[in-house]
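Entry 14: structure prediction run for Acyl-[acyl-carrier-protein] desaturase. Input pasted below.
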Amino acid sequence: MKPKMSKGDKSHSLTQEKLEMFRFLEGWAEENMLTFLKRVEDSWQPQDFLPDASSKSFTDEVQDIKARAEGIPDECYVCLVGNMITEEALPTYQSLLNSFDGTRDETGVSMKSWARWTRSWTAEENRHGDLLNKYLYLTGRLNMKQIEKTIHYLISSGMDMKAESSPYLGFIYTSFQERATFISHGNTARLAKVHGDVTLAKICGTIAADEKRHEMAYTKVVEKLFNVDPNTTMVSLADMMRKRITMPAALLYDGQDHNLFNHYGAVAQRIGVYTTKDYGDILDFFLERWRVGEITGLSPEGREAQEYVCGLAERIRKLEERAHTRSMNKRSQMMPFSWIFNREVEV
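Run finished. Output tokens:
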């Protein structure tokens, strides 16, 4: 059976009127979005958290990292590596941001506010993968070549956020995704602290704080879109939720495990790094933040979309409960992960 297409399931769907609206919002983005960025001189850098290779104490500091690493369980490393690889696929995400009609960087050096946001957001995000990659390398617990191959495969594969070149869909996606990564890195920080690596906990917490700041920027954009064009924004929200927010690393592959993303996701679900419940909580958060249920004056299509999204969180809760029941009843399965030299982890 051919899959049912969403009503807006096509590329470059923005009318000239909508494109003009995003051009009109350039000034708003300058004053309300770019303010969430930090100057380079005011920003942390990976080296702030890493041993200085030019220092006489470098070897001792690396040994300290390796000693602390012994206390981190393999299941936590699977999640840490999955998070890090997701961050390392940054070229894909910048390419996708530059696919949005009306907000893309047309020249590569455009000084328009949307373009400056994309480049500066990318620069801030770039530090995340750099820092995690270097720190995890120093632990000595990981098969770095397999991790590097996974990054290579993932960037080569790309991703489909199903945004159809629409900034409405794209900014809804990025709002959800930034909040998801904020939660995932925050929970990983908590686990690192529990297992005795305070430095790793600080690293993950610092990255989570960046994700939260970026979430606030994208959330404000969608809030503005609900204000100036509530009907299109509501329909876009329902469209994106029907498609479901696809994780950036959905095409994860290491050259061995063709189901690697699901196995990584199962570990993250089991140890509480990122769960189905979190997905429902994120939807609840944005429904309240954007006051979706209070918006009036919508078209029949808009009201139908509003009814759908406002009832969706409860359906997700029921699905989560059923999934939890199934997981409690299923026999545990051990799965080797090439990232940790094929040591087995429960999924």
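Notes: Residues 32 and 139 are 41 Å apart (CA to CA). Will compare against the previous run tomorrow.
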